[in-house]
Design brief:
The structure is a homodimer. Chain A is α+β, with helices and mostly antiparallel strands. Chain A is built from 7 helices and 17 strands. In chain A, strand 8, helix 5 and strand 9 form a beta-alpha-beta unit. In chain A, helix 6 packs across helix 7.
């Protein structure tokens, strides 16, 4: 099938979703984006994603186009008869902002990732403007490549104070006793799924503390997991090659609530 | 005139120098680049630029295409009958690396910038992988926008220890007495023009010290200036709105040597 995309409200072929390498915004990562989950023709938490994109754009001074995102998305869903998909909005801050909506098959992961947990590694580095979702992603790219090269699924970013803030494409949580820790809002991306994870944790009787744990505390946690739009909540059972304890059932309960609230 | 460009050794129209927004390397700033100065059909210090690009690519694990840069540049110079220009090599680390050579009119600046000096502002922020020239440029972009919004020409990046490291698109120097200070090699981009500036300074009898000055020392310098491929050496006479002393003649002497060595 020849897939389509949207460029500033106009339906185009996805192979026409291109940007000029001569443009300063393209050259300078002056862009914002959102990755969306489409389930049964419906974008999950679209309002939250748009709110976050507007925040990211505002923070870097990028003027978004005058867009009706829901209408544009509906055009694309109709044109390609999309049922389930991972969709991406990308806006480049060119002289006339260029907004693209593109899509790919729904990102899913093997059941075993949820049933037995995934391996993560740690990577020292700090994201620039950590609360914003921009195209300035080289650190995240390299951190994930590093994890993959070591057979791990995700990389946890550690700042220069030794705090474990977030994954390269996920948020991070550590549970010890009855308390779930995750980094303060001003240090990490305000994950759309993170909101649901915090709600689910509280509903399951956990106390939530918005405070990053130290790298040296990773091996002393009872349970660690990561979250993202595509992953929901995924248990972590290995850190830098060390097996770590994990209450897989607890993470599965959080994951189930996150997924349930997506379609309510 | 319809300008051309080179894509992986093939002559194309410059309006075809495009990259797909769906590609992970494009989305993640996984790219390296060089800005070249073409004078009288000849690229200035091409070997230095290629060496630096190879270093940048190697540092982030980006495999460059098997390229004959001089031949590719010559193709473009011949096709568009280029005499003087600012040329750009950009390589995206896509599955098959995509190397572009594009060009624009030679970047030049008004004489008064050299005769009476330019204004700079300071901006707090640290470049990721500062020795590498990559597409991860959002900090530099925002710093320069900040300078422009304040009527200044360039922004000086200050790290969290208060050290003035470099400009958003230039290297930075402060002369006090007989000593010229510039940041250590591992903290900044190894400017191609910086090599010439250091050589010129020594030839003019200055001692060179590879050590960044503190933000609080900016107003106590005798002379400050910035350098880049397009600027050569440009005197600074205003910092964050404060007039500062500057030996314009000395900077002009350095600038003249830098330009002279370009065409030797």
């Amino acid at each position: 099938m020849h897939r389509h995309a949207i460029r500033n409200g106009v339906l185009i072929g996805q192979d026409e979703a291109l940007v000029p390498v001569t443009d300063r915004a393209v050259q300078s990562s002056f862009s914002v984006y959102e990755a969306l989950r489409v389930v049964d023709r419906h974008v999950v938490h679209l309002d939250d994603h748009i709110t976050r994109m507007e925040y990211s754009a505002s923070a870097i001074g990028l003027a978004l186009p005058d867009a009706d995102w829901q209408t544009w998305i509906d055009m694309l869903v109709a044109a390609d008869d999309i049922v389930d998909a991972t969709m991406r909005i990308t806006v480049y801050g060119t002289a006339q902002p260029l907004a693209f909506i593109t899509w790919q098959d729904l990102l899913t992961y093997p059941d075993e990732y949820y049933d037995t947990g995934i391996a993560v590694t740690t990577f020292h580095g700090e994201r620039f403007l950590p609360t914003c979702k921009t195209g300035n992603l080289l650190l995240s790219y390299l951190a994930l490549e590093d994890a993959h090269s070591k057979g791990a699924f995700e990389s946890l970013l550690v700042d220069r104070e030794g705090r474990v803030l977030e994954g390269s494409r996920s948020n991070f949580y550590l549970i010890r006793g009855n308390v779930m820790y995750t980094a303060a809002d001003d240090l990490v991306l305000g994950g759309v799924t993170r909101k649901s994870v915090l709600r689910a944790a509280r509903q399951l009787g956990l106390e939530t503390v918005m405070q990053a744990v130290g790298e040296d505390e990773l091996l002393a946690g009872d349970t660690m997991f990561i979250s993202s739009t595509s992953m929901a909540a995924m248990p972590v059972t290995k850190v830098d090659g060390h097996d770590v304890s994990c209450d897989i059932g607890l993470v599965a309960s959080i994951c189930a609530l996150v997924r349930k609230w997506e379609i309510e």
